[in-house]
Amino acid sequence: MTTRIDGNAVAADIRESLTARIETLQSEGVTPGLATVLMSDDPASETYVSMKQRDCAEVGIDGIHVEIDTDAPADELYDELERLNADPDVHGILVQMPLVEQVDTRRVLRSVDPLKDVDGFHPENVGRLVAGNDRYRPCTPHGVQKLLEAYDIETEGADAVIVGRSNIVGKPLANLLIQKADDGNATVTVCHSRTDDLAEKTRNADIVVAAAGMAEFIDAGMISEGATVIDVGINRVDADTEKGYELVGDVEYDSVAEKAGAITPVPGGVGPMTRAMLLYNTVKAASLQTGVDVTLP
Ligand SMILES: NC(=O)c1ccc[n+]([C@@H]2O[C@H](COP(=O)([O-])OP(=O)(O)OC[C@H]3O[C@@H](n4cnc5c(N)ncnc54)[C@H](OP(=O)(O)O)[C@@H]3O)[C@@H](O)[C@H]2O)c1
Predict the structure, then answer these.
(1) Which residues of the chain have pLDDT under 50?
(2) What's the pLDDT tens digit per position in 64-117?
(3) pLDDT value at position 75?
(4) Nearest to 59 by CA among 116, 6, 17, 7
C-alpha cells in the first residue's frame, strides 16, 4: 500500500501549533508581524503574496504589504527595506522573487536584517545552516523535512537523491539532510541538468526529492520499489479547465504511486508546507526579537 503524504493535513497541524504560540506572544504584548514586499507585476507573484497575507491573517500574524512600482528606481526598494528593518512591529520580511531587472537581487538578500530574514536567504543565515547552527530554515526544504518527520520516514542512513540544485530548494535541503541530527544523517546526492544518468541515481535512492521544474519527468522507471517520493515541482500545463491549465508536479504521479512506498501529491503536498513554514519562521522571528520564549515544534 502506498502512503499518500497529505501536506494539507500536516500544514494544518503546524498552523494549529503556531496559534497557541502566537497567543503566548500576544499575552506578552507581542503580535508577530510579517512584511511582504512586491516589486513585480508577475501574476503568479501577486497570487503568492496575497496567499501569504491571507495565511497570516488566519493565524493572528499582522500582515503588512508593501508594493513598489515596477518602474521605480531600485533605491526605492533598498530604502523600504531599511525602513522595515528599523520597524519594531515588523519581525519578518519577505521580498517576493523574482524582482524587476533594475534591482540587484543579491544586494536585496544582503539588505534584509538577518534576524528578520524569514526566507533564510541572507548569506549569514545560509552560512549558519551549512554550519549546522541554523536560525531560519528556508521554508520549502523545512516543509519537506516536516513531512518526512510526520510520516515517520527515517532519514538516518537513507540514500536521498535531490533533483535540482537551486538556492531555495535543492542546496538548502541537501545541507539540512546531511546534518548530524535526528532529521538529517542522510547520504545525499544532488542532481542537476548536467548529471549523467539521472535515472540510475534516482533508482538507487530511498528518498527522491524532485525539484527541477519539469512537468512529470520523473516516471516509475526512475524509482525503486518502496521509495519515498517528494514532489516539490509546480508546473502549469495546458488543460481543458476553466483556467485553461492545471498544476502538475515533476513526478508522473499515477505510475510512480504504484511503485513508491510514500508519495506527495501536487497540489496538496509540499506547497501548503512551504506556506506553513513561513508562518513558523515569522513566529520564531518574533520570539527571537522580543525575548518572549515560545518553544517551537
Ligand atoms: N512547492 C513549493 O512550495 C515550491 C517552492 C519552490 C519551488 N517550487 C517548484 O519547484 C520547482 C523547482 O524550483 P526552483 O526554484 O528550485 O527551480 P530552479 O531554480 O529553476 O532550479 C531547477 C533545478 O533543476 C535542475 N534541472 C532542470 N532540468 C533538469 C533535468 N532535466 N534533470 C535534472 N535536473 C534538472 C536545474 O539544473 P541546473 O542547475 O543545471 O540548471 C536546477 O538545478 C519549480 O517547479 C518550482 O515551481 C515549489
Answers:
(1) none
(2) 999 999 999 999 999 999 999 999 999 999 999 999 999 999 999 999 999 999
(3) 98
(4) 17
List Cβ neighbours of 164 (8 Å cut-off, separation of 6 or more).
170, 190, 191, 192, 209, 210, 211, 212, 213, 232
| Strand 245-248 with 235-238, pairing | antiparallel
From 113, 117, 119, 134, the catalytic residue: 119
Question: Would you say 122 and 136 are in contact if contact means Cβ atoms under 8 Å apart?
Answer: no
Q: How far apart are the first and last CA of the chain?
A: 29
Under a CB-based contact definition with an 8 Å cutoff, are residues 207 and 231 in contact? no
Tell me if residue 171 is catalytic: no
pLDDT at 1: 87
| pTM, full prediction | 0.98
Distance (Å, whole) CA 228 – CA 187: 15
Active-site residue, 96 included: yes
Ligand 1 interacting residues, C-beta cut-off 6 A: 140, 163-166, 168-170, 191-195, 198, 211-214, 232-235, 270-271, 274
Measured by CA distance, the residue closest to atom 1 of ligand 1 is: 271
Among 47, 146, 193, the mutation site with the greatest number of ligand 1 atoms within 8 A of its Cβ is 193
Closest CA to 248 of 238, 235, 230: 235
What pLDDT was estimated at residue 62?
98
Q: For residues 62 and 272, what is the distance between their CA atoms, to the nearest angstrom?
A: 20
